[in-house]
Design goal:
Blueprint (H helix, E strand, L loop, with lengths): L1 H22 L11 E3 L17 E3 L5 E6 L10 H6 L8 E6 L2 E4 L2 E3 L6 E4 L6 E5 L21 E3 L5 E3 L2 E4 L16 E3 L4 E4 L2 E3 L5 E3 L3 E5 L2 E4 L4 E3 L2 E5 L2 E5 L4 E6 L9 E5 L2 E5 L2 E6 L5 E5 L2 E2 L8 E2 L12 E5 L15 E3 L2 H4 L20
Parallel strand pairs: 3-4, 4-7, 5-8, 6-9, 7-10, 8-11, 9-12, 10-13, 11-14, 12-15, 13-16, 14-17, 15-18, 16-19, 17-20, 18-21, 19-22, 20-23, 21-24, 22-25, 23-26, 24-27, 25-28, 28-29
Antiparallel strand pairs: 1-2
Bound molecules: 2-acetamido-2-deoxy-beta-D-glucopyranose (4 copies).
């Protein structure tokens, strides 16, 4: 009976959470919905006495809200001040409610502060922006270099953001300019969730650095390698918008060994803007990028993909693919022999949230 009781409790809490998620979407983030499933084969219709059916909550206990309003109507005027108010080794869900307005500041969420959500009032009205470039000098006099330019940097796990935009407002580089990389956002923590967010920059807008990430209904704008890094990420129902003037590229993925599970899976996205545009570049030797069910406007460069540097023969080791894409640019995305139309067998793992182990940390209603 013990295990029956246990599973009943599990389903009961699942039910309550589902209700809660449906009725209070503003209050509950994906991070509230977190349980550990220790058996991968659960038969929900047949209770058994197996000791393997063992679910327990891991993660945050409790919930706290912090308000930020640039016009003074909240507890804090700046987003960083709100993050600073969260204790080290935070164990609560912390919802930072950010009113409409421009927050002109550089923000860091340190690794010691997991379970934080940035909730804006809409990606067109709540905006965090800064303007650092790679060639600018930091406090120590050293050049920042690309990764430290991000207007917002998150090193913590279980971060989420909803209905808010992140911008880097440094001017777009002229052709041939060096050191003008300027990131809007850097995510280096694991299990990060984004919905309804905007990311605006030119070269290197979104640093999808490390960890498992899920981007839903986001808008990402840039010119060169505007999504880059070694994350393991799914982009679902997103718009990827190029502002390139001479040549641009969307994704530069930095997987460096066949053992790494990283890669970018674009699912049901839209590619728009100006070109010509490479859809993917082999930043790492084993770079992995797949576009599925994605619409391509007529902006794709001849060949579609770029091997980054010819000398390292990356065209033999990368995994670049498309699956059931469409639109006037879709044919060009199959322009090189090392980026092929996939069959279902090789595409299916890039089509579901399991690519980022989402079952364990993304609520069904959030996927
Ligand atoms: C689940 O249990 C039911 C009832 O015992 C059984 O009919 C069904 O085949 C099981 N399904 C799986 C996937 O094991
Ligand atoms: C579970 O174990 C109890 C006690 O051993 C037994 O009475 C019961 O029939 C078992 N239930 C199932 C579904 O196997
Ligand atoms: C917030 O984002 C969600 C997900 O993209 C979207 O459906 C909703 O309309 C957005 N709400 C506002 C106020 O922008
Ligand atoms: C792969 O890259 C090498 C080096 O640039 C080139 O010589 C070769 O033709 C390429 N192979 C294919 C199949 O495109």
């Amino acid at each position: 009976m013990a295990s029956l009781g246990y599973s009943f409790l599990f389903f009961y809490s699942y039910f309550i959470l589902t209700l809660f998620l449906l009725h209070a979407p503003l209050l509950v983030t994906s991070s509230t919905y977190r349980y550990k499933v220790e058996s991968s084969s659960i038969n929900r219709t047949a209770p058994t006495n197996s000791t393997k059916r063992h679910h327990k909550w891991v993660g945050p206990v409790g919930y706290r809200e912090i308000t930020v309003d640039v016009n003074g109507a909240g507890e804090f005027l700046s987003v960083q001040a709100a993050v600073d108010a969260v204790p080290e080794n935070n164990g609560e869900n912390v919802m930072i409610l950010i009113s409409a307005g421009y927050y002109i500041e550089k923000v860091t969420v340190p690794a010691s502060k997991p379970y934080i959500t940035f909730q804006g009032e809409g990606r067109d009205v709540t905006i965090i922006e800064w303007h650092d470039r790679a060639c600018d000098r930091g406090a120590n006099g050293q050049q920042l270099r690309t990764y430290r330019t991000a207007s917002v940097s998150v090193f913590a796990n279980y971060f989420s953001a909803r209905n808010i935009s992140f911008k880097n407002t440094a001017p777009a580089p002229m052709p041939g300019m060096q050191g003008w990389q300027a990131a809007a956002f850097r995510i280096s923590g694991d299990k990060a969730y984004f919905a309804g967010c905007g990311f605006y920059g030119a070269q290197d807008t979104l640093c999808d650095d490390a960890g498992r990430h899920y981007f839903k209904e986001c808008y990402i704008e840039g010119s060169i390698d505007f999504i880059f890094g070694n994350g393991r990420s799914m982009y679902r129902d997103c718009e990827l918008h190029s502002i390139a003037t001479r040549f641009g590229s969307i994704a530069a993925q930095d997987r460096n060994s066949p053992d790494e599970k990283t890669g970018f899976a674009f699912l049901n996205c839209r590619v728009t803007g100006t070109g010509p545009l490479y859809v993917g570049r082999a930043m790492g030797q084993y770079s992995r990028i797949v576009y599925s069910y994605t619409y391509f406007d007529n902006v794709v460069a001849h060949g579609g993909w770029d091997d980054w540097d010819h000398a390292s023969n990356k065209n033999k080791t990368v995994f670049f693919g498309v699956y059931k894409c469409w639109g006037p640019g879709a044919a060009a995305v199959q322009g090189v022999s090392w980026a092929r139309e996939l069959d279902y067998e090789s595409a299916h793992k890039f089509l579901a949230k399991s690519f980022v182990n989402g079952r364990h940390w993304i609520a069904p209603s959030d996927a």
